[in-house]
Amino acid sequence: MAPRKKSHKNKGGQGDEAQGSGEREREAGTGPEARGETEEEEEARRAARAGGLRDFMQRVQGQHHRAVEMRLVLVCGTIVTAQILFSDKLTDPVVSSITFLYMMTCVLVTVLSTWLDYFPNRLTDILPREAEGQGISLACLLPPMVCCGILHSALHNATHLLGLLTLYLAILCALSLCSLLAAVFHAIPHPNHIVFYNFAVLGVAYAMQHWMGVPFWPVLVSIVLYSLLTPWLLYTFPESFTLGEAMLVAQGGTLLLVDTSMQLLSVYDLVQLPSQFAILRSPALVYLEVLSCGVFLCCFLFLPVLYKVSISTEHYDLKFWSGTFILLSLSVGVMLVLPWIPNMLHWKGPTEGAISYVLLFPFSSAARLLLLVYWLVVLVATVLLVWAQTSDSDWLLPFKSTNPSSLWMRKWFHMLALLVYFPGLALEPDMLALGSSLFVFLFFIAELVRLFRMWPFGEQLHQLLDPMLDDRDSGPLMLTHIYLLFGFSLPVWLYPLGSYDHETKLAMYAGVLALGIGDSVAAVAGKLMGRTKWPGTQKTVEGTLMSVMTQMLAVLLIVIVDPHISFLSSWQWGVVTVSLVLTGVLEAYTWQIDNLILSLFQFTLLTVFL
């Protein structure tokens, strides 16, 4: 099934595969003629992709900047791991062994780093988003590093989460190892290399159970889901992800699906599961998991209906099949999915329903009600700003930009998110966490409606958002705004896993600092006053320095305004400065979606060292 979308390029392979790929391209109208290329240019491009490992290594010898993001995450991940292994709070040998496994994974990624960079050149059947680097090493190292940071915090503040976090760290290390195995086995000149990969996957899951005491089935199910999700994202949505971005999204989706399904099996006593899954999650996390899984479930169950929507050309057919999908999804959501929420949260009262909780929560205090009114004002301003870009109304002309996809316009959305999250974190972090979970659900729904042009708002929504496409939204999906929401929200959800006793910590402001202030100031300052560029990039040193200084002032303001955050010592200010500088360097050198990785990187450093 393919939703209606613009035509996309397709890259060919080599030998017989190249010939077959070329025939498919000509049939689909995506061959070299559609791209405006001659046959000679097409053959040259294919030859460049099919170059040997030796040629590839010669090409990258002078490109020392290509591994900066990997080295940053590698060094910081090693330090975070050492903090856990040498902590006087660490008494569980399972935690020690899994943490040591992450360190070994870092070593393997380092050894195979050049091979991982070469791996995308071997792929001829998929079309990732064009970028200077595909970010495979970053995707292998960053998620386990984030989990190690949360684990370190749990050692000191939430020991009841150690079992669950250790299991997730083991799963993330297993997924990283499977990514390495995929890169190695793909190059085996054997038609059954996938068989070798499957046996290796079983070996990884069995070794973790036998030597580290990790439950076998959660690890194996996670590996299988991840191995299916990653190629599905790349095949179904060409040019929407780099390989690293697809791996990061697949890892997040795998953890979300596994955690939700295991909780449901535990709540309804369907099977005997490890005790880690019986831990009560925060309402924000439960709403996020259940509603997101509900969207995926409806898409999976009603896939034939979505296919009919995607191929409908007549207005009547589009209305019929869109209405059918909406009615079926609402039925499943109300009767099946929403009852999961009170059961997973162990709510028993008649007023503790999934919908009534959301409706009554803002009215439980005056501060929450005032904050809700303020957020509604910001939301109306955002809607007007977006609407003004495609409207010809005279009263909206002051809000209209001559170039809606320009840097200034895109950073305005960073500032609007900053206006939402800063007061929310300072006043009501619980309400902010719940509201951001609900908005992720709404963003998923909006993207689904826009992608398939569903009646009645799909086409209008596409026309509304299309002028503001980011350069990295080159595929059928529009993901930049969703990445931005996740970048701001993940530090709020994950510190640690939402159990922060209604108080804020500085690490929860990582999204506000890295994206709302740092990324925006770096882009604007670099454009206005940038002169000296970082080697191998278009980012400027002046932009990075202005970003760090502005974030330092923002940290000072947070310490003054937020009553839950005490004044920082000289050591803590030094830690904050180093973390901001490292995040600025990562922003300058990464070719991945910075909205997704910068806040996670900074969140981990602030969580571990403050």
Which tags fit this structure?
610 residues, mainly alpha, 26 helices, globular
Summarize the structure.
With 610 residues, the protein is mainly α. It has 26 helices and no strands. The protein is globular and about 65 Å long.
Shape: globular
Structural class: mainly alpha
Strand percentage lies at: under 5%
Order of helices and strands: HHHHHHHHHHHHHHHHHHHHHHHHHH
Largest sheet: none
Count of individual helical segments: 26
Terminal Cα span: 48 Å
Question: Quick check: average pLDDT?
Answer: 81
Q: What's the Cα radius of gyration? A: 24 Å
**How many β strands by DSSP?**
0
Unreliable spans are 4-36
Helical percentage: 55-70%
Structure description:
The chain has helices at 15-28, 32-35, 39-49, 53-60, 68-85, 93-111, 113-122, 136-157, 162-185, 193-212, 216-236, 243-267, 283-301, 303-311, 315-337, 340-344, 354-360, 366-388, 407-427, 429-451, 458-465, 480-494, 510-529, 541-561, 570-589, 594-609. It is mainly alpha-helical and 610 residues long. The chain is globular.
Set down the secondary structure blueprint.
Layout: H1 15-28, H2 32-35, H3 39-49, H4 53-60, H5 68-85, H6 93-111, H7 113-122, H8 136-157, H9 162-185, H10 193-212, H11 216-236, H12 243-267, H13 283-301, H14 303-311, H15 315-337, H16 340-344, H17 354-360, H18 366-388, H19 407-427, H20 429-451, H21 458-465, H22 480-494, H23 510-529, H24 541-561, H25 570-589, H26 594-609
Helix pairs in contact: 5-6, 5-8, 5-26, 6-8, 6-9, 8-9, 8-12, 8-26, 9-10, 9-11, 10-11, 11-12, 12-13, 13-15, 13-20, 14-15, 18-19, 19-20, 19-22, 19-23, 20-21, 20-22, 22-23, 22-26, 23-24, 23-25, 23-26, 24-25, 25-26
